[in-house]
């Protein structure tokens, strides 16, 4: 059974959401990515705090954002404004996890039906959903990444203006919210790079899989 082209478009969008939400989830859930940077960014030397104190602070914040544990930053000082920002961050994390879970279930459901019912995705201009998910989503991310690379500071501000509209609680005072001293801009830049690399790798796999499938038809 050949499915309508609208299903191909829908599945392309689902694949793109799955790849993006997965890429974002990796630096959130894989805490060793941050631990490695403690010494790489010379955070103990820059802040005067030990690696153990820095780890504890980061873990407490992630426990709040991911697991819903009571907010804290270990032995570091924090303000109510800082806590409210991380509450906003927690909402974005949960949104990403929902997007990852729903898109993964939808992909699994469609693939099972495709194998079980012998469904065939109707190609668009000769290509399947994986190709379009990879090329369009990957192309958009490359454009955004290129613009961000030109001026990361400005991109950082624009990002917060988009995802935290009308709020300025993301602008931390390092004396009252000391967590920002152990989560410097370089760390967030590295997170963005990791997300981009994982996402573009996923997009490349989707495109190559589609091209190989066509080659063997």
Describe this structure in words.
This protein has 217 residues and is mostly helical. It is 73% helix and 0% strand. It has one domain (5-215). The chain has eight helices and no strands. Helix 1 runs antiparallel to helix 8 (185-215), helix 4 crosses helix 5 and helix 6 (129-150) packs across helix 7 (152-163). The relative contact order is 0.17.
Largest sheet: none
Which range best describes the helical content: under 10%, 10-25%, 25-40%, 40-55%, 55-70% or over 70%?
over 70%
Strand content: under 5%
What is the average per-residue confidence, as pLDDT, rounded to a whole number? Answer: 89
Radius of gyration, CA atoms, in whole angstroms: 21 Å
Q: Total number of helical segments?
A: 8
Which key phrases capture this entry?
217 residues; elongated
Describe the secondary-structure layout.
Layout: H1 5-29, H2 32-40, H3 43-47, H4 51-67, H5 80-116, H6 129-150, H7 152-163, H8 185-215
Helix pairs in contact: 1-5, 1-6, 1-8, 2-4, 4-5, 6-7, 6-8
In short:
With 217 residues, the chain is mostly helical. The protein has one domain (5-215). The chain has helices at residues 5-29, 32-40, 43-47, 51-67, 80-116, 129-150, 152-163, 185-215.
């Amino acid at each position: 059974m050949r499915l309508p082209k609208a299903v191909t478009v829908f599945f392309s969008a689902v694949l793109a959401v799955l790849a993006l939400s997965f890429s974002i989830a990796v630096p959130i859930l894989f805490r060793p990515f941050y631990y490695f940077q403690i010494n790489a960014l010379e955070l103990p030397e820059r802040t005067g705090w030990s690696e153990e104190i820095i780890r504890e602070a980061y873990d407490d914040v992630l426990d709040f954002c991911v697991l819903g544990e009571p907010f804290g930053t270990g032995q570091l000082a924090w303000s109510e404004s800082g806590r409210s920002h991380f509450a906003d961050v927690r909402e974005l994390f949960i949104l990403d996890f929902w997007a990852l879970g729903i898109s993964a279930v939808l992909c699994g459901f469609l693939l099972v039906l495709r194998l079980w019912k012998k469904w065939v995705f109707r190609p668009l201009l000769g290509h399947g959903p994986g190709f379009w998910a990879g090329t369009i989503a990957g192309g958009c991310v490359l454009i955004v990444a290129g613009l961000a690379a030109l001026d990361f500071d400005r991109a950082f501000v624009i990002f917060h203006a988009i995802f935290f509209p009308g709020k300025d609680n993301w602008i931390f005072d390092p004396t009252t919210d000391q967590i920002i001293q152990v989560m410097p801009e370089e760390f967030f830049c590295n997170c963005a790079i990791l997300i981009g690399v994982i996402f573009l790798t996923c997009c490349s796999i989707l495109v190559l899989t589609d091209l190989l499938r066509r080659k063997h038809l």
